[in-house]
Amino acid sequence: MEEKKEIKSIPRIGEKAPSFKAVTTQGEIQFPEQYEGSWVILFSHPADFTPVCTSEFMTFATLADEFEKYNCKLVGLSVDGLYSHIAWLRTIKEKIDYKGMKNVEVQFPLIEDITMEIANQYGMIQPGESNTKTVRAVFVIDPQGIVRTVLYYPLSLGRNFDELFRIVIALQTADAFNIATPADWHPGDDVIVPTAGSCGVAKERMESKDNDVYCHDWFFCTKKLDSKTIFDKITKK
Ligand code: BEZ
């Protein structure tokens, strides 16, 4: 008889982030329950003591306080063991001077996942790329523990941190102001008003005299939303 392989679904946008308990460089964590009320970026890297990962970790650690301003915490993962993680983070702090970043202390938890259980749960092992290393996965999870964005990068490509910030800010802006954000949006650019759901609203939109709203057509209306209004609302006080 043909053996049936279990096909695991990876976490998808709009679904609850799978729950796990893990050992990390900051002690044990229960994920995502422990992060209820905060945004969190759960990300994987291929391996400790590798150059692209080192550049990323130094950048994540340097930007951790900036993420915190948006109530966003960081949690890393690789299939290396705890002592490798500790040794790597000590080396980064003591020896690595890269692009003006030095003496960098990684204070967010880095998960050890030698059994690859969590990596498999989150679709971080992608055998076409590697059977033994996690790809560069990014899960942006909201304060209710719902997956809101999923990104996967290959081993050779370091992540774009401007984009990670843009994602966190855009998601929080969409939630806070009930809008959507167009291509290449940055705070201060016009935002998109939810598409009219009835003929009446479509007509109202097209006839609106509101100077802050501009309709390209009934289904595509943008409005002004200045960055101060956004940051006043979404940044931690
Ligand atoms: C790196 O981080 O440099 C790396 C890790 C695994 C494979 C290739 C590159």
State the separation between the terminal residues, measured CA to CA. Answer: 62 Å
* Count of runs of 4 or more consecutive helical residues: 6
- Give the low-confidence spans: none
Please state the overall shape, judged from the principal axes of the Cα atoms. Answer: elongated
Series of H and E elements:
EEEHEHEEEHEEHEHEEH
Q: What is the radius of gyration?
A: 21 Å
User: How many domains would you count in the coordinates?
Assistant: 2
| Molecules bound to protein | benzoic acid
**Sheet of most strands:** 5 strands, mixed
Helix content: 25-40%
Which strand order does the major sheet show? 7-4-3-8-9
CATH top level of the largest domain is Alpha Beta
CATH superfamily of the largest domain: Glutaredoxin
What would CATH call the architecture of the largest domain?
A: 3-Layer(aba) Sandwich
Which topology of the largest domain does CATH recognise?
A: Glutaredoxin
Average the pLDDT over all residues and give the rounded result: 96
Approximately what portion of the residues adopt beta-strand conformation? 15-25%
Could you tell me the number of beta strands? 12
Helix-strand makeup class: alpha+beta
Walk me through the structure.
With 237 residues, the protein is an alpha+beta fold. The chain folds into two domains: 20-159, Glutaredoxin; 178-234, Antioxidant, Horf6, Chain A, domain2 (Antioxidant, Horf6, Chain A, domain 2), CATH 3.30.1020. The chain is built from six helices and twelve strands. The strands form four sheets. A five-stranded mixed β-sheet has the order 7-4-3-8-9, covered by helices on one side. The chain has a three-stranded antiparallel β-sheet with strand order 10-12-11, with no helix packed on it. The chain is elongated and about 65 Å long. The chain starts with 19 loop residues before the first strand and ends with a helix. It binds benzoic acid (BEZ). Benzoic acid binds at residues 46-47, 50-53, 133, 155-156.
